[in-house]
Amino acid sequence: MSLKTLLGDSDFANLIATGSVNFRLDERLFDNDYPGHYLRQIKFVTLSLPTLLGPWQDVRATLTQTSSSTLLKADIDGVNYLNDNTTGNAANVVTNLRASQQIAISSGMNDSGLFELSFGDERYLPFEGTGAVSSWQLSFPRPKSSEQKAILDNLSDVIVQVHYTAVSGGSDFANTVEKTL
């Protein structure tokens, strides 16, 4: 998904100016594509930074997951809670499993923060198993340095790809969720 589209022009311009932005991937965002899915858990996340880079020039940025939530059952009260925590019920929602994980981005092209993305490894990948409904901070350290400023000034968008698994709650649950959109 396009971070520029998600944030809007004003907040994206703030990222360019300050080198940092907070954003949220909310329940409604996922329900617009797949209403009635639950147990949305991240497998891995990649970032692409469309910018003009010179030869041998690296991107320097960090992506931190600041919170996450997972709906454990096909529960409309849980969906309502995830959309607005003053309504619904959090009984079937788990929040902040392994919070504050962070990756460093260096290549800027489908970068997962790993030297080699290996699914055969027995260790968890960054963000793996956390909720896809989540909050994030993207930060470019030392944004006023000449190298970082050049990258930020030429940054046209940030593409966030969240690879996740989910379970279908069935057509009745999907229809009920669609009514909340």
Question: Which key phrases capture this entry?
Answer:
single chain; two-stranded antiparallel ribbon; 181 residues; 25% helix; 29% strand; 7 strands; globular
What is the topological layout?
Layout lengths: L2 H5 L1 H10 L1 E6 L1 H7 L3 E12 L12 E11 L4 H8 L9 E3 L6 E4 L27 E7 L6 H8 L5 E10 L2 H8 L3
Organism: Salmonella enterica subsp. arizonae
Protein name: Tc toxin complex TcA C-terminal TcB-binding domain-containing protein
Task: Explain briefly what this protein structure is.
The protein is of the alpha+beta class. Helices cover 25% and strands 29% of the residues.
Shape: globular
Write down the domain tally.
1
The overall pLDDT average reads 92
- Relative helix content: 25-40%
**First-to-last CA distance:** 19 Å
Q: What's the order of the H and E elements?
A: HHEHEEHEEEHEH
Helix/sheet category: alpha+beta
- Which residues form runs of ≥5 with pLDDT under 50? none
In terms of DSSP E residues, the strand content is 25-35%
| Major β-sheet annotation | 5 strands, antiparallel
The beta-strand count equals 7
Report the radius of gyration as a whole number of Å. Answer: 17 Å
Number of helices: 6
